[in-house]
Amino acid sequence: MTDPYVRIRDLGVTFTGGAKPVRAVGGVSLDIREGEAVALIGESGSGKSVTMRAIMRLNPEKRSRIEGSIHVGGHDVMKLGARRLARFRGAEVAMIFQEPLLALDPVYTLGAQITESIRRHEPVSRAEARARALQLFERVRIPSPERRLDSYPHEMSGGMRQRAMIALALACRPKLLLADEPTTALDATVQIQVLLLLRELQRDLGLSIIFVTHDIGAAVEVADRIAVMYAGRIVEEASARDLMRAPRHPYTIGLLKSRAHGAMVKGARLDTIPGAPPDLANLPAGCAFAPRCFLAADSCRRDDPPPLVALDGGRTARCLRVEHTHPDAIGTPAH
Amino acid sequence: MSPPDTSRADSARPLNGAGEALLTVRGLKKYFPIRGGILNRAVKRVHAVDDVDLEVMRGETLGVVGESGCGKSTTARLLMELIEPDEGELIFDGCKVGSRELPLKEYRRQVQMVFQDSYSSLNPRLTIEDSIAFGAQVHGTPKREALARTHDLLARVGLDPARFAGRYPHELSGGQRQRVNIARALALRPRVIILDEAVSALDKSVEAQVLNLLTDLKAEFGLTYVFISHDLNVVRFVSDRVLVMYLGKVVELGEAERVYTHPQHPYTAALLSSMPSMDPDHRTEEPPLAGDPPNPIDPPTGCRFHTRCPSIRPFCATREPPLADVERDHAVACHARVPASGYHDDAAAVPDPEKITA
Lengths: 335, 358
Ligand SMILES: Nc1ncnc2c1ncn2[C@@H]1O[C@H](COP(=O)(O)OP(=O)(O)OP(=O)(O)O)[C@@H](O)[C@H]1O
Ligand SMILES: Nc1ncnc2c1ncn2[C@@H]1O[C@H](COP(=O)(O)OP(=O)(O)OP(=O)(O)O)[C@@H](O)[C@H]1O
Ligand SMILES: [Mg+2]
Ligand SMILES: [Mg+2]
What we know:
The complex is a heterodimer of chains A (about 325) and B (about 350). By secondary structure, chain A is of the alpha/beta class. Helix content of chain A is about 30%, strand content about 20%. Chain A contains 11 helices and 12 strands. In chain A, strands 6-7-8-3-9-10-12-11 form an 8-stranded mixed sheet, sandwiched between helices. A 4-stranded antiparallel sheet of chain A has the order 2-1-4-5, with helices on one face. In chain B, helix 3 crosses helix 4 (about 145-155), helix 3 (about 130-140) packs parallel to helix 6 and helix 4 crosses helix 6. At the A-B interface, helix 7, helix 8, helix 9, helix 10 and helix 11 of A face helix 6, helix 7, helix 8, helix 9 and helix 10 of B. Bound molecules: adenosine-5'-triphosphate (2 copies) and magnesium ion (MG) (2 copies).
């Protein structure tokens, strides 16, 4: 078997700026193959964005402590010097966000921003860079691309701006695209266009994608595999199909159940997970989800966090009681 | 507490006789000037909200959906009187807003809003406890009482006061900050709450908690909600009626289940069929609606949707369709839905909005 394109091992990120250190990411391991799209879903505040930023070394280095290792396409990310890091960002990995206006510079046209980004990385002429910018705009399906290269960000609609940001991210031909809630601010008609575009880029350019979202439907549209985070850890990982059919970690089960969907009875109560997420500055012993878990036993509340359990079909879950969530298990979760 | 009945504007009768209008909006218009040129004069205008009429019924939840940039947040800001309309008037509980019977300050206490952007809507220098208690104190509640209520509200939105009351906004995740905003809106005991993408930063399990909370509060205090969101599943679940906007105009308004199961406007149909499939084996292959929305600086003439509509008549480009009832409690702005419009005169195929799905 070939090495995965992205290999994250025991990543830990602790913020030390506040009164108490906050361990936002507490041991994340994740592999991504070349050309694979993985969605990261889970609790808000569970460390999804911090994990993505760690891959590009964007967390404040003075006010955080980073442990573990990250390898991307042969680069040991933690060890990159300033020069190589600058190249790595853009030419190997690029990131898009929920709010394109934060990533785009309001005072330059999009054409200027993309051309500039290409020329910062590669010794090409202005005309050549401009021609590539035009190709990118065509690639992400911006209408009248030639004219749009001369537009300023504020002159575009939300969906067009999001596609322009994707074009900018692709400017230096990265192999990994990190997308942090890229469609949350878009309506359904535009969202589906952007999701299909991401899938097309994955297929045509062999791009690997990590896609963070709260919208499980959006994750299903894009991802081959889904990883679920809770309190700074990945608690379950499976193919999109397996996860949707039969979630195994009790947190994932609760998360999928709490969705409002289709023709639910009006005024009915939604299923929720009782209790609140733990304080990251003060995590309980054992499994961080145990205080809210319908399956928890005494053993779940002791000692170390549960290990990763390998299940059939190459999926994994971090749960001591995972045999009780098997679809065939007697006594499947009584709610 | 409520204003005297003598000042009731009798034109505030509800549409279709269902329920009673608490908030009525007529002819609302907001064009944002775009400055440019050497003199920095307003050279063009964004038609953000263009002649919107609507009624929010007492005790209902009115869902608002539509294209990004179609004017939902601007409408919300106008309803809150945070920005001034170019035209149009608001009538709240029978009184004209800003009149002697209902001064702006009193109106603002009764109508609260949770903003789309949780970051910029909290003062970074106040602890969240002070942020929440502040409004009530301005309106005359003694500090002790305001703080006690604040702690109660924090607990109700699922943030343990012992852990969170003294924190500053930057010490919270996006989802936690949004719950602080909801608590703050509730602190003044308003009658109407406008929720602009209030739950979209939350994961599904926290979202479910907040939606249940909103349901409880509505029953407990008889609240009325205007619920703006891109999440069509959530809007369907919470709303009694749904309003669909496109480029500054209302294109469809009706009972929620009816709109979702029998959309009448082709844009509504395209929007609903753009929902992700949820089934990994049957992913969406083609976007139901291609292309981009037209520029709101220079919106299309006639029906604003005609540039993207799957089946138009020539006059759709010149004649603007009015918002007209097609059945009880269901209004739509589309020539194809009005028998007398001439749309069906030439014997061409009748569009079926339910067939837009690719
Ligand atoms: N610069 C920082 N200093 C201190 N704490 C931080 C910092 N950045 C993030 N955190 C904390 O780290 C945790 C993880 O944050 P992160 O932004 O990764 O969450 P997330 O999973 O992306 O959540 P959401 O879905 O709400 O965006 C949160 O509890 C957050 O409060
Ligand atoms: N202060 C402003 N100055 C100029 N234009 C503005 C201003 N505020 C909003 N607009 C424009 O008005 C239109 C409507 O914006 P609005 O924020 O109301 O849309 P929305 O429906 O809430 O969109 P979204 O779903 O993306 O939140 C957009 O074209 C927007 O760019
Ligand atoms: Mg995040
Ligand atoms: Mg908005």
